[in-house]
């Protein structure tokens, strides 16, 4: 019979139980036993949901208190020396130190997991790197599931992916792929222990097969699976997802393992070729259910594809699962009682996707759930024909765009001259990225207003008080360009999406971004437009409270789409264009309200980059154009900023320059200004704010640390083009750490001004 299986399930809990427990532990309000009990309950509930749905092969070790790559780092004992590890057991507290930093050690670098909005902790390699089996989590969770009556499929990040995602941090020129000879024996030891514990299957995730692989990576893959395939009677499933195999298809299909998994959504065109090339005893797992989006699967279409593969391979060699781990999906639709029921009929979250997987596996064996398939077909038709989706006004506006809509009136040099004359800022001007701490009082007031327990007038008075205090604080500290703090905003995407036509929001549709940071992505179901101004009221009020320039804060069109569950019935580029026009209207209104500077964040610009270089140019062209479309309606003397998080810029710097923002701020503190190399080599022409304060760690950096980072920046970039700012918004931090850190940051800027004379 065809086997149904899952690659991974959301680990946050239906009501964010993991976040609450983890943050309580960090705050000292919950002990270690309480934290681990909360994790165990989430795992138990997840396994039970999958068992109840009828999943034949259920994963374990897909749960994490922070990040699965960090878990792998602990499991193989690859702990950076600065964390003073004793070399024995790499436990949960050590993992938290690596993720969050300590008073003595900066946190490990964090960046995006392929082209998703999930962040992983980057493994670090040096000439002194060694590996050893140093963790027990994978074995403990397998045993835990077995006690529940389940023989699970443990999940591991594969060696090739682990080495690819890591970075050499000691400047030694080490070939990180040469570390495979030390790493592979640890994987063999892990598999031996799992086999001894009674595991039958192990899932090894190798999404690097969706990338352009070099000879070193290919050699690691050959060496790894030649060795791992000799481990006992254990069945190994190697999974690829997030894209097509393309030139890696031959390498992938010849792996000497028991089963191979491919992304049947993004790699639909390769299914037939993969099935035809499989060795005679290798099973094929097809990911026919989209793990990254929330639309129902077209069951009839998926069944047709599966039936063709079954005819080729036979039922015993066919497995059905999601395209990738369901980590990237909200947990369940059961709690979404406030959504338009017409829309609900089109959706499937993680729990509902389990039902789709099982239904497809059974249907391809002839056990068709007729009622389910008929309801699914009706949903497909209703969505295609629904009046909710299309807006003639938006279509006509997009069709009427011309080349002049995609550019500012003058080139940067002329704009910069006018902006300097208007703003009169000192060297090393100081600012923040936008948000200030969302304290318990702020969240409580917002929730009370949303429930109707706090009147509009009282809520406005509360927000005015918060803004007034934030402005007074910034003026007292000596900031040059102020922000209003975004106290009225719940999330940088959600706040705008709630005010745009074509967007809808769930009640509990949370997904993990990193650690205990969860987001509730909007659903873009139809054409997008802006019915009325979204931020003008509070930005205008804030500007009225100070003589210093106030920066308006917006989220850019690529990020608004990338961090949403996006309609899949038209190209993403068309949806981004619609959002860009809505943001353009807001920018023009902010300028008219007296804002001299407007920041339009494109944190997800690089994240949206296709995994294959051959596809980059098309994306970069329309992504950069969308920013210019959003910013193209203002005067030359209005300064347009943008911000990008955790991005490697070397290979896309020309496209960042093509965005033509007057100033860009970026993350550089964890990487010790490494990211500036791209701007130096390219001779980036506009202004830049390299972050000097790592806001993702609770530690307070000293003034000397920030001065040292600025000195690195001044050594390679013109001082007159440098801004001083944190890495990112301060929403998730507390005032107790933010205030001293910002004071140190302003002092660092003042020290730099004292040392460097501004050019005439």
Automatic annotation (TrEMBL):
GO terms for molecular function: 5-methyltetrahydropteroyltriglutamate-homocysteine S-methyltransferase activity; zinc ion binding. Residues 4-312 form the Cobalamin-independent methionine synthase MetE N-terminal domain. Zn(2+) binds at residues 643, 645, 667, 728. InterPro entries: Cbl-indep_Met_Synth_N, Cobalamin-indep_Met_synthase, Met_Synth_C/arc, UROD/MetE-like_sf. Its cofactor is Zn(2+). Its EC number is 2.1.1.14. Pathway: Amino-acid biosynthesis; L-methionine biosynthesis via de novo pathway; L-methionine from L-homocysteine (MetE route): step 1/1. L-homocysteine binds at residues 433-435, 486, 601. Keywords: Amino-acid biosynthesis, Metal-binding, Methionine biosynthesis, Methyltransferase, Repeat, Transferase, Zinc. It holds the Pfam family Meth_synt_2. 5-methyltetrahydropteroyltri-L-glutamate binds at residues 16-19, 112, 117, 563, 607. It catalyses: 5-methyltetrahydropteroyltri-L-glutamate + L-homocysteine = tetrahydropteroyltri-L-glutamate + L-methionine. Binds 2 Zn(2+) ions per subunit. Binds 1 zinc ion per subunit. The active site is at 696 (proton donor). Zn(2+) 1 binds at residues 643, 645, 667, 728. GO terms for biological process: L-methionine biosynthetic process; methylation. L-methionine binds at residues 433-435, 486, 601. Residues 428-750 form the Cobalamin-independent methionine synthase MetE C-terminal/archaeal domain. HAMAP family: Meth_synth. Belongs to the vitamin-B12 independent methionine synthase family. Catalyzes the transfer of a methyl group from 5-methyltetrahydrofolate to homocysteine resulting in methionine formation. This is 5-methyltetrahydropteroyltriglutamate--homocysteine methyltransferase. It comes from Salinisphaera hydrothermalis (strain C41B8).
